[in-house]
Design brief:
The protein is mostly beta strands. The protein has three domains: about 25-150, Sandwich (Immunoglobulin-like), CATH 2.60.40; about 165-200 and about 230-360, Cupredoxins -  blue copper proteins (Immunoglobulin-like, Sandwich); about 380-560, Immunoglobulin-like. Helices cover about 10% and strands about 40% of the residues. It has six helices and 35 strands. Strands 10-9-14-19-16-17 form a six-stranded mixed beta sheet, with no helix packed on it. Strands 13, 15, 18, 20, 21 and 22 form a six-stranded mixed beta sheet that branches. A six-stranded mixed beta sheet has the order 24-23-28-33-30-31. Strand 1 and strand 2 form a beta hairpin. The radius of gyration is 24 Å and the shape is globular.
Length: about 575
């Protein structure tokens, strides 16, 4: 037997093409690196010294092993955003939910298998605000020999959108926590780590038609020609005339929902959140933090240079970084100093653009990739989400901003909930998270006079393989706002959405139960609602939270506890021996 194994190994070395690698090894070293943006330099936390971090490539069905070693002063965890982690919740990554953080000088091996998934996802730190610079792309290719369900592109390009602060973001969030006030907004938006042209690093606006692109502007320039030559720290997408490219666009921003546009070019969406969609052609992508959109781009315009713009969406009174991130699409053989073709960006409060985009997405729902929407429901949940004000004796003005689900502001424990559940440790959490608000009110009308929330570390318990319908209702307490919400451990189907209060009698009649888009993160419209359905077929503890980091920090989060089913194949795996200790 030993000789036979050795013979197979010898043959595999001689004929590597016949052997498909099923285990992907990565080493993530968390280190500090100095970075210069917007004419200022600061130390940032990175993986392997890169911003954005290294791309993780694998195929559907592969086993991925990532050795994380922490060389910085902060505790660190990594979340593999959108990876289902079937029975491997120990590797999901949210600090104090599924694991204790990796402490300075320590390491941990993340071990998971990419089961039944293919497409674009992301990884990011999941403790404090470290994901500002600790993030990167996950590209899951189909199994070998399995084609895309759309025309094969000439090349693929990964585009990661982000935010940049001149200040240390850990200091930003710590100051906000101490004062009880909202944190300072970011100073720029980035495309693959680049904010775009920054002559003199001063700020002004460029008017283009009825819109304004907010970019750093040189007051000494008499026209827009500076964009022709100022390409320092700007991302450039190089294309060849007549070719089709697959763009894997990822919103890794911390607090901003973003529009993405390329001048004079349409995009055909074919996948979101690693789930194939029916082709949808548009000139504008809309992504909330944590969302991904994969789209085909045809290089069908004249040779030249075309502006790529990412701009924020905010349709309420909440402050937002309104600077536009700038990049370029450049055709091969474009001459130097060729004028740039500009693009009209959506207004910052362009709600109709977001609604059209969201409503146009449909699951592919083919024989090979069906939309298995739960048609019968075991748990019908109603979560109202928003912000509030709690008293704080040590805070500025004697109060602090908080956020809540069903009026419960989540309190992070000091022992990971999954560990407490697995080992039967009492006193870490309770399983009495409310299925609906204790006191119903007019959620999108005049807010109640009392805006204080209750605190708790509460989970909602689900039996294995039970089905869930969750209506997420935004409210207008303090200020209405769009909330991109993310569920760990499962995808879900977005069966409905609307503005105003959800009507339990009329609105379900309009649900799409045939081909609703499948996602892991969805934006709940400002003063509106979104309805999702999913099957709880993954035992473990799964975080559910707003993916605006400011709201997560304030407590807009909870967790689902999915019980084991029958036998080992329906039960969570035992914890790894190197699981970090708190």
């Amino acid at each position: 037997m030993v000789c036979w194994v050795r013979t197979l190994l010898f043959i595999s070395v001689l004929v590597p093409a016949f052997v498909e690698c099923r285990i992907r090894h990565y080493h993530f070293n968390v280190v500090v690196k100095n970075a210069t943006k917007l004419c200022s330099t600061k130390p940032i936390v990175t993986v392997n010294g890169k911003f954005p971090g290294p791309r993780l490539y694998a195929r559907e069905g592969d086993n991925v092993l990532v050795r994380l070693t922490n060389h910085v002063q902060y505790n660190v965890t990594i979340h593999w955003h959108g990876v289902r982690q079937l029975r491997t919740g120990w590797s999901d990554g949210p600090a104090y939910i599924t694991q204790c953080p990796v402490q300075p000088g320590q390491n941990f091996l993340y071990n998971f298998t990419l089961t039944g998934q293919r497409g674009t996802l992301l990884w990011h730190a999941h403790i404090s605000w470290l994901r500002t610079t600790v993030h990167g792309a996950i590209v899951i290719l189909p199994k070998k020999g399995v084609p895309y369900p759309f025309p094969k592109p000439y090349k693929e390009k990964v585009i990661v959108l982000g935010e940049w602060w001149k200040a240390d973001t850990e200091a930003v969030v710590n100051q906000a926590t101490q004062t009880g006030l909202p944190p300072n907004i970011s100073d720029a938006h980035t495309i693959n780590g680049h904010p775009g042209p920054v002559p003199n690093c001063s700020s002004d606006g460029i008017s283009i038609g009825p819109y304004t692109i907010r970019v750093p502007f040189d007051h000494n320039c008499k026209n827009r020609n500076f964009l022709r030559s100022v390409n320092a720290d700007a991302y450039t997408l190089h294309v060849e005339t007549g070719k089709t490219y697959l763009l894997r666009v990822i919103n890794a921003a911390v607090n901003d929902e973003l529009f993405f546009k390329i001048a004079n070019h349409n995009l055909t969406v074919v996948e979101v959140d690693a789930c194939y969609t029916k082709p949808y052609e548009t000139d504008t992508l809309f992504l909330g933090p944590g969302q991904t959109t994969t789209a085909l781009l045809k290089a069908d315009q004249g040779i030249g240079k075309y502006l790529i713009a990412i701009s924020p969406f905010m349709d309420t009174v909440v402050a937002v970084d309104n600077l536009t991130g700038i990049g370029y699409l450049r055709y091969n053989h474009t001459l130097a100093f060729t004028p740039t073709t500009f693009v009209a960006i959506p207004a910052v409060n362009a709600t109709p653009v977001t609604s059209v985009f969201s409503d146009s997405l449909r699951s592919l729902n083919s024989k090979q990739y069906p939309a298995n929407v739960p048609l019968t429901i075991d748990h019908s949940l109603f979560f109202t989400i928003g912000v509030g004000i709690n008293p704080c004796a040590t805070c500025f003005n004697g109060s602090r901003a908080v956020a809540a689900i069903n009026n419960v502001s989540f309190v992070m424990p000091t022992t990971a909930i999954l560990q407490a559940h697995y080992y039967g440790i009492n006193g870490v959490f309770t399983d009495d998270f409310p299925a609906k608000p204790a006191i119903p009110f007019n959620y999108t009308g005049t807010p109640p006079s009392v805006v204080q929330t209750m605190n708790g570390t509460k989970v909602y318990r689900l039996a294995y393989n039970s089905t869930v319908q969750l209506v997420i209702q935004g409210n207008t307490i303090i200020a209405p706002e769009s909330h991109p919400t993310h569920l760990h451990g499962s995808n879900f189907f977005v069966v409905g959405r609307g503005v105003g209060n959800f009507d339990p009698e009329k609105d379900p009649l309009k649900f799409n139960l045939v081909d609703p888009v499948e996602r892991n993160t969805v934006s709940v419209p400002t003063a509106g609602w979104t309805a999702i359905r999913f099957r709880a077929d993954n035992p473990g503890v799964w975080f559910f939270h707003c993916h605006l980091e400011v709201h997560t920090t304030w407590g807009l989060k909870m967790a689902f506890l999915v019980e084991n089913g029958k036998g080992p194949n329906e039960s969570i795996e035992p914890p790894p021996t190197d699981l970090p200790k708190c």
